[in-house]
Amino acid sequence: MAYIDGYVIPVLKSNRAAYLEAAQTAAPIFKEHGALKVVETWGDDVPRGKETDFYMAVKCAEDETMVFSWIIWPDKAARDAGMAKAMADPRMQPGASPMPFDGKRMIFGGFEVLMEA
Question: Which pTM value belongs to this model?
Answer without folding.
Answer: 0.91
